[in-house]
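Narrative of accomplishments. A recurring question from our advisory board has been how the design workflow behaves on a single, concrete structure rather than in aggregate. To address it, we present the structure tokens for one chain from the evaluation set, followed by the sequence designed for it. No filtering or post-editing was applied between the two.
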């Protein structure tokens, strides 16, 4: 799952950096190109981190809890923002498709890691120490 989300974020993050014109044809015109590119770089960065973690892990359970939280949390935030601003007419309705993908990712992370209260032993595998 980390590999799939990582590839999606890397591709969608780099798209406006390399071809802002086609990005705006699909997603609608933007007023602040710098902001589009900044968000693109942030998404691409998350994508690279998820890809790296995904290729290193044998299973989703081998991923650090913090990475699972950021992957699911970022998907939830992006999906929420896409939904809200699409529905109030601020951005194109095409973002509802992105919202559906993001919601699916957030739910998949939740399903793959129920009650992700990692044990001390599981955290120790990743070199993490809990401080009481």
């Amino acid at each position: 799952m980390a590999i799939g989300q990582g590839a999606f974020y890397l591709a969608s993050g780099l798209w406006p950096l390399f071809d802002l014109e086609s990005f705006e044809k699909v997603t609608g015109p933007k007023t602040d190109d710098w902001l589009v590119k900044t968000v693109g770089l942030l998404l691409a960065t998350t994508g690279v981190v998820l890809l790296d973690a995904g290729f290193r892990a044998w299973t989703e359970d081998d991923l650090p809890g913090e990475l699972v939280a950021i992957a699911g949390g970022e998907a939830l935030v992006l999906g929420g923002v896409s939904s809200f601003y699409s529905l109030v007419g601020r951005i194109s309705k095409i973002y509802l498709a992105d919202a559906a993908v993001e919601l699916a990712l957030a739910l998949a992370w939740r399903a793959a890691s129920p009650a992700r209260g990692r044990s001390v032993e599981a955290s120790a595998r990743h070199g993490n120490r809990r401080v009481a």
